[in-house]
Amino acid sequence: MFSLRGDAHKFYLKLKKEAERGIDISKKKEIQELDQIRRFYKGIDTTLLININYWIRKEKSGSGLIPILITAIPWILFIFSKQVQAIFHHDDHYLWLVVVLLYIFAVTLSVVIHFKERAWATLHAQIIEDILTIRKQLEK
């Protein structure tokens, strides 16, 4: 089930395959988790839910600590560039490779974590907004 269309399409393909095999997709772990989140938020009164939504929007809109830290590393190395060059110059020229590989790994990992966190914040915000919209419609 290889696809370059992203996680949403992979999830769709997974659900489609399960449904075609006659498996109840409402029992899937992912669907159960979403339902659990929705049920939790449904049990909270509207005023508190609005405040939670504000907090989630704030978190979602923030740039996050991980990208800031990762972009700060090159600046720190730039500031101390003479000292860093001295360290690398006295080495067998393999230390720079280790540093570069560690940095690339850290950047990649932090980007993945950052966007996963944003995706979960978006999910929670959307669930809360849907509940608030339904409640507003029921009040009318």
Structure description:
It contains six helices and no strands. By secondary structure, it is mainly α. The protein has a domain at about 45-140. The radius of gyration is 23 Å and the shape is elongated. The termini are far apart. Keywords: Membrane, Transmembrane, Transmembrane helix.
Give a topology summary.
Layout: H1 7-20, H2 29-42, H3 46-61, H4 65-79, H5 81-89, H6 95-139
Helix pairs in contact: 2-6, 3-6
Tertiary shape: elongated
**Broad structural category:** mainly alpha
Mean pLDDT: 83
Number of separate strands: 0
Number of helical elements:
6
How far from one another are the termini?
46 Å
Biggest sheet character: none
Percent of sequence in beta strands: under 5%
Helix content: over 70%
SSE string = HHHHHH
* Rg calculated over all Cα atoms: 23 Å
Low-confidence stretches: none
Keywords: Membrane, Transmembrane, Transmembrane helix
Transmembrane segments: 64-81, 93-115
Question: What structural keywords apply?
Answer:
single chain; 140 residues; mainly alpha; elongated
Structure summarized in a few sentences:
The chain is mostly helical and 140 residues long.
